[in-house]
């Protein structure tokens, strides 16, 4: 609690300075001629804090907020951290530099690093190459499908079945439609696939197998449709090879438009032919926003590999991505030891981050983007669609959640009606269920929702 008390002392010093300035101004106009008419006594003492009502109100509000968060922190696991800033001023810190399992709140670090290094205007592009169709619409030879790392390449059916669907999705059917628009009606050869932009690591070895069977994350690759799942109803089934599954998805989309492909779907190391069609994802910034709002694990992992690719890794690897993330985070003021993680999503239990580091991702603008504008809104969107619906902060809080077994996290910003925004970071590692973790988040949000709890400045003025 030392750092919190230090910050409150600064607030008191500011108050004293302002009041002293008021006193100096009053003395400067005090009559020195004893024959002058007496000056009416001020309604409030010159050195009264009421001479600086806005500062006094802020101090009262901050004091009450820190008291509420103090009571919150004493009720939770000691392996927890909290950091809160009002506007540009940090007003509360409890173990802010403690290294904890962040769960999905790690995505903020991945997002910040990606935007700082790569920017937000580029797109992922999926390309089809082959011989130009003849007069009858026949492509002689193979169609080559080349992955560009798009994490949101999807079918309409998959999007419709997901609680947190990829949005904005890149529709594989739209790529098929572009091919048809060039006159393609038949392909005599095969569909060949190429996904060597990234390596062929399909999952982090230390992840639980249940993450895939539960649909939390699918097999990874630079060419994957529907998060690497080859079927999604009545249950999700992960593809052994997401690239081949993507080729089959294109085949089905072409078949639906009357195009016949004679050969099978196979891998090819050397795609050839002219570019017949291409489809681009939404801009990177929107893809990052989808990852944060929907807590999309596949998107997080592929953004990490694209970060590696932008840093010169060919084929891009997860390990190179984590190194590139650390470098990019340092460029926005996050210390090297503040984030140590082996993946992009926060699924791995060896991942570590501090509240101070995660708060920094909100208080800086990596690549010129406000991450807080990309977060889910309480009771309205994304992972907070059905959370905090009855809270005073419904519609007025945006946040990134984090949840693993015995891990809960919440990082975001509130929009009080009559005060500066509160930016906050909270992580707790303990022993609780998922429901228990949500209950802990609820307690913190209840404390934040009271801010600013103070008399109106007008009532404090002399």
What does this structure look like?
With 462 residues, the chain is α/β, with parallel strands linked by helices. The chain folds into two domains: 59-118 and 286-448, Beta-lactamase (3-Layer(aba) Sandwich), CATH 3.40.710; 125-282, 3-Layer(bba) Sandwich (D-tyrosyl-trna(Tyr) Deacylase, Chain: A), CATH 3.50.80.20. The protein contains 13 helices and 20 strands. The chain has a six-stranded antiparallel β-sheet with strand order 2-1-20-19-18-17, with helices on both faces. It has a five-stranded mixed β-sheet with strand order 13-9-5-3-14, covered by helices on one side. A three-stranded parallel β-sheet has the order 4-8-12, covered by helices on one side. Helix 3 packs parallel to helix 9, helix 8 runs antiparallel to helix 9 (297-310) and helix 9 packs across helix 10 (318-331).
Helix content bin? 25-40%
Cα(first) to Cα(last) distance is 34 Å
Radius of gyration: 28 Å
Pairing-aware structural class of the strands and helices? alpha/beta
Q: What is the assigned CATH homologous superfamily of the largest domain?
A: DD-peptidase/beta-lactamase superfamily
Report the average pLDDT across residues: 89
- Give the DSSP E fraction (strand runs of 2 or more residues): 15-25%
Strand order of the main beta sheet, please? Answer: 2-1-20-19-18-17
CATH C-level class of the largest domain is Alpha Beta
The total number of structural domains is 2
**Which CATH architecture of the largest domain?**
3-Layer(aba) Sandwich
What is the number of beta strands?
20
Shape: elongated
Q: Would you tell me which CATH topology of the largest domain applies?
A: Beta-lactamase
Mind describing the biggest β-sheet?
6 strands, antiparallel
């Amino acid at each position: 609690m030392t750092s919190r008390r230090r910050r409150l002392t600064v607030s008191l010093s500011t108050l004293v300075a302002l009041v002293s300035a008021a006193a100096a101004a009053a003395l400067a106009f005090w009559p020195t001629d004893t024959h002058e008419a007496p000056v009416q006594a001020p309604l409030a003492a010159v050195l009264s804090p009421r001479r600086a009502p806005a500062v006094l109100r802020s101090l009262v509000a901050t004091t009450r907020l820190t008291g509420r968060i103090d009571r919150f922190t004493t009720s939770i696991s000691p392996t927890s951290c909290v950091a809160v800033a009002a506007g540009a001023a940090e007003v509360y810190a409890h173990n802010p530099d403690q290294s904890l399992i962040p769960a999905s709140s790690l995505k903020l670090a991945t997002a910040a690093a990606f935007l700082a290094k790569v920017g937000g205007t580029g797109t992922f592009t999926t390309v089809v190459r082959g011989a130009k169709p003849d007069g009858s619409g026949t492509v002689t030879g193979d169609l080559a499908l080349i992955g560009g790392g798009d994490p949101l390449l999807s079918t309409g059916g998959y999007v419709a079945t997901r609680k947190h669907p990829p949005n904005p999705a890149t529709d594989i059917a739209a790529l098929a439609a572009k091919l048809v628009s060039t006159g393609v009606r038949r392909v005599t050869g095969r569909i060949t696939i190429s996904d060597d932009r990234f390596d062929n690591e399909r999952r982090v070895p230390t992840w639980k197998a249940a993450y895939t069977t539960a649909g939390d994350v699918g097999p990874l690759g630079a060419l994957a449709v529907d998060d690497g799942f080859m079927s999604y109803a009545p249950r999700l089934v992960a593809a052994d090879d997401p690239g081949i599954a993507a080729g089959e998805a294109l085949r089905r989309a072409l078949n639906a438009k009357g195009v016949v492909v004679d050969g099978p779907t196979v891998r090819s190391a050397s795609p050839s032919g002219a570019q017949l069609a291409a489809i681009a994802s939404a801009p990177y910034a929107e893809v990052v926003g989808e990852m944060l709002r929907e807590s999309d694990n596949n998107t997080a992992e592929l953004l990490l590999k694209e970060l590696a690719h932008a840093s010169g890794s060919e084929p891009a690897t997860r390990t190179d991505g984590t190194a590139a993330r650390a470098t990019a985070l340092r460029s926005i003021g996050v210390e090297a030891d503040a984030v140590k993680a082996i993946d992009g999503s926060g699924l791995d239990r060896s991942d570590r981050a501090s509240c101070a580091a995660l708060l920094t991702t909100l208080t800086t603008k990596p690549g010129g983007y406000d991450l807080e504008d990309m977060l889910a809104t309480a009771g309205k969107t994304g992972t907070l669609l059905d959370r905090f619906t009855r809270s005073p902060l419904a519609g007025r809080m945006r946040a990134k959640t984090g949840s693993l077994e015995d891990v809960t996290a919440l990082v975001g910003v509130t929009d009080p009606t009559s005060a500066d925004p509160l930016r906050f970071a909270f992580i707790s590692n303990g022993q609780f269920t998922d429901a228990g973790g949500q209950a802990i988040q609820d307690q913190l949000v209840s404390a934040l929702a009271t801010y600013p709890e103070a008399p109106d400045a007008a009532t404090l003025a002399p």
